[in-house]
Each structure stands twice: as structure tokens, then as C-alpha cells.
Automatic annotation (TrEMBL):
Highest taxon of source: Bacteria
Family membership noted in the UniProt record: Belongs to the class-III pyridoxal-phosphate-dependent aminotransferase family.
Protein name: Aspartate aminotransferase family protein
Requisite cofactors: pyridoxal 5'-phosphate
Chain segments annotated as transmembrane: none
Length: 432
């Protein structure tokens, strides 16, 4: 019996968890095992972290070899050569021009790092006034104070959101007309003009960057309307505002291409990454930055401005670096992004088949990422919480958020396993 009186769990109703704990002791491929020996199908790739499947020997062996050779080096004083190799491999994968890579340990740290890069860039250009940021309702950009301010999740901001950077929120992109539409919504491109409203209200000269998730993930998978991201890019270009894509969920093949930037054909100035960078086997994040941004900050430092004083004890940790190098090789050698692309139509169709259930009020998605809404009970979020527990009992792990469910299978899932996921969903949802 595990004693639960000491650990303060993250993002969890601690008391409810203790009353009915769900404990995972093993993982392999697309399955977890709980402490009672039950196999559970992993319908969320962990937490969007593990597209190549759990416990890949290629990754675990690389990490253990690394730990036996060099376990730690303080990266800002004594770097390991592998970190440069990883940066080069990543820059070959990121969209053209985003060729400088800063390493972090999580998505939240990537977001904070990106905010600081934005500030440092404008400072270096002599436009230090551009401190205001624009983001979106129903966005999730992690839990650190800058990310909480950017996020459009009211609950997360209630207590912690008042002391971060000054942020203007655009509207989110979901609307009634999109219910069960599938793929990219046809309507809603004009919502990008909310950025123009922010510019009209505050002046472009006060705005440093616009942060968006290309697909809002954690708040229920909101797919951008056709032309929306292009329009944001045009407005940013016209007003000299940096465009940042938070690809912590969408990065590394989730939409069928290496990045959602590739899938939607829009190149931002900065991309934040984490999760699938190491297939979830080690904590690591990264920020990919346009060369011009890096050059501006570094050149200014060379002529007397402060250096970019930012970094972490564990930046480019050797074990995480080894995991990431092995993961990128696996993605390439096994053609996993192509596999995600070829599985996507089958997966989206299977998810859409749930629309006949009365409790389901919307299904939407793109690539191997889908969200569905449950008709809420009196207390919003109650059904979603119960569903996630009931699904686990029925042998399926997925993430829920409020009354929305999010499904994100591993790229190695077989069509049969996708069918199994959807049939467990159907069976469980029918009882509601
Ligand atoms: N940004 C986005 C878009 C995310 O989805 C997440 C995590 N779900 C984060 C940032 C924060 O990442 P982490 O939990 O690794 O700090």
C-alpha cells in the first residue's frame, strides 16, 4: 500500500485521488499497466509526449549509456558536444530560418524563455517599449508566471495571473458553426483581426509578440480556421510584431508534418517545443529562433548591451540530450511523421463516428489530435472528470479538460488499436 500523506500532487484534486488512486507501474508500446496488473490502452501518448510508444529500447539504451559516461555538466560553462549535435539536428527539422536552438527542461520553461527572447530582441533593437504581448482566450502556455498571463484559462489566472507581463487576449477560434465540421473550420478567419484591434487600442509600438498555439491543445483541441494563421502572420509583418507558435503539443509530427507551421504553411519567428522532443523519456524543451533574432541579441551584446542572461542548471542535460538525439533518429528511421499522416484520416473518421451519441456535442481535430465535448452537467467539469476515471477503469487512458476529452494516439498505433480506443469511448459514453 502506498502512503499518500507526503506527496503534493500537481494539477490533481489531491483528496479525491487519495480516495481512489490510479497508479501506473509499467508501460510498453501503446499500453500502460496499473498496480493491479490491468493493461490500459494509452489514448493520449502519455500527455502528448510519447508518439513513438513507451519504453523504446533505442532511447533507454542511449540514456543509460550517456549516464554511465557523462551524467552532468554545467552547460553554460562546460558544454557537451552532443548538445551542439542536437541543436543542428533540430534546426534541420524546424522551418527554414529558425536555426538557433535554446534548450530548456519543459514546455513552461520554453514559453518563459520565448517571452524573454522577445524582450531581449526589442531591447537590442532600441524598442524596449514593446513589452506588451498578445495571446488568445482558451490558450494554454504552461504554468510559470509569464505563461499563466499568456494563457486564456481563467481558472489558472484567478490567483496567479495578476503579476506577469501585460497581455491582451484575442478571442478563441471555436464557434457553434463548427460543430462536427471536421478538419479546418471554413469560417472564422476574421477572428485574426482581433490582433488589429489590439494594435488599434495599444499601438503596435507597445506590442512585442503574438503567442498562439497553432492548434489550441490542452483546452480541447481548437483547430485554426482556414487562413487564420496566415492572416496573423500578415498582420504581424505589417506592424513589426513577432509571431510565436507554441508547438509544445503540435510539434514533432502530431499534425502529420514535423511542425504545425509546416502543415498550415505559416512560418513564425519563434517556436516553443517540449514533450515529444524526447518521446517523453526525459524532461526537455527547446526554443527555435530565427537567426535574425539571435544575431540581433548577440551582436548588441558584443557592442556592450547585456548578454542574454538566462538559462537553467539542467539546460541541455546530457541524459535529455541523448534521449532527444535517439528520438529524432527514431522518428526519421521509422518514418513516424509519415505514419501519423497516413493514420490521421482513419483516426479522425473513427472519432467523428461518436457524433451520434447524445452526450457528445462536438467532435473536432486534425492529424492525430482530436477533441470532443460532453454536454455538461450542472457543475461544469464534473462529467469530464468522471469520464476520465471511468475510461481508465474500462482500459483507456485519455486526458480530459473541463467537459472536453482529448485523444492523441501514439503514431505507432495500429488501425485496430485506434478502433479499440474509439470502441471503449463509445461503450463508456453510452452509459452517460
Ligand atoms: N505550452 C503548451 C501548448 C502546452 O500544451 C503545455 C503543456 N501541456 C505547455 C506549454 C507546458 O508544458 P510543461 O507542462 O512541460 O511545462
Amino acid at each position: 500500500m502506498v502512503n499518500m500523506d507526503y506527496h503534493w500532487m500537481p494539477f490533481t484534486e489531491n483528496k479525491a485521488f487519495k480516495a481512489d488512486p490510479q497508479l501506473i507501474v509499467k508501460a510498453d508500446g501503446v499500453h500502460y499497466w496499473d498496480d493491479k496488473g490491468n493493461a490500459i490502452l494509452d489514448g493520449s501518448s502519455g500527455l502528448f509526449t510519447t508518439p513513438a510508444g513507451h519504453c523504446r529500447p533505442e532511447i533507454t539504451e542511449a540514456v543509460s549509456r550517456q549516464l554511465a559516461t557523462l551524467d552532468y555538466t554545467p552547460h553554460f560553462l562546460r558544454a557537451s558536444p552532443a548538445s551542439f549535435e542536437l541543436a543542428e539536428a533540430l534546426s534541420q527539422l524546424t522551418p527554414n530560418g529558425l536555426d538557433r536552438i535554446f534548450f530548456t527542461n519543459s514546455g513552461s520553461e520554453s514559453v518563459e524563455t520565448a517571452i524573454k527572447i522577445v524582450y531581449a530582441y526589442w531591447h537590442a533593437k532600441g524598442q524596449g517599449n514593446r513589452q506588451r504581448l498578445v495571446s488568445r482566450e482558451r490558450a494554454y502556455h504552461g504554468v510559470n508566471l509569464g505563461g499563466v498571463a499568456l494563457s486564456g484559462m481563467v481558472k489558472n489566472r484567478e490567483i496567479f495571473g495578476n503579476n506577469g507581463p501585460s497581455v491582451v487576449h484575442m478571442r478563441h477560434t471555436w464557434s457553434e458553426t463548427q460543430r462536427f465540421e471536421g478538419g479546418q473550420p471554413r469560417e472564422g478567419v476574421e477572428l485574426a483581426d482581433d490582433l488589429l484591434r489590439a494594435i488599434d487600442n495599444y499601438g503596435a509600438g507597445s506590442i512585442g509578440a503574438c503567442f498562439v498555439e497553432p492548434i489550441a491543445g490542452s483546452t480541447g483541441v481548437l483547430v485554426p480556421p482556414k487562413g487564420y494563421l496566415q492572416r496573423l502572420r500578415q498582420i504581424c509583418d505589417a506592424h513589426g510584431i513577432l509571431l510565436v507558435f507554441d508547438e509544445v503539443i503540435t510539434g514533432f509530427g502530431r499534425t502529420g508534418q514535423p511542425f504545425a507551421s509546416d502543415t498550415f504553411g505559416v512560418t513564425p519567428d519563434i517556436i516553443t517545443l517540449a514533450k515529444a522532443l524526447t518521446n517523453g523519456a526525459q524532461p526537455m524543451g527547446a526554443v527555435a529562433v530565427k537567426t535574425e533574432i539571435y544575431d540581433t541579441i548577440i551582436d548588441a551584446a558584443a557592442s556592450g548591451a547585456p548578454e542574454f542572461f538566462h538559462g537553467y542548471t539542467y539546460s541541455a542535460h546530457p541524459a535529455a540530450t541523448a534521449a532527444a538525439l535517439a528520438t529524432l533518429k527514431l522518428y526519421r528511421d521509422d518514418g513516424l511523421f509519415e505514419r501519423a499522416q497516413s493514420l490521421a484520416p482513419l483516426f479522425q473518421e473513427a472519432m467523428m463516428s461518436l457524433k451520434d451519441l447524445e452526450i457528445i456535442t462536438d467532435v473536432r481535430g486534425f492529424g492525430l489530435l482530436a477533441g470532443f465535448d460532453l454536454a455538461p452537467e450542472q457543475r461544469p467539469g464534473k462529467r469530464g472528470f468522471e469520464l476520465q476515471k471511468d475510461l481508465f477503469e474500462a482500459g483507456l487512458h485519455i486526458k480530459t479538460t473541463g467537459d472536453a476529452g482529448i485523444v492523441a494516439p501514439a503514431f505507432i498505433s495500429s488501425p485496430d488499436e485506434i478502433d479499440q480506443m474509439v470502441s471503449i469511448l463509445r461503450k463508456t459514453l453510452k452509459r452517460y
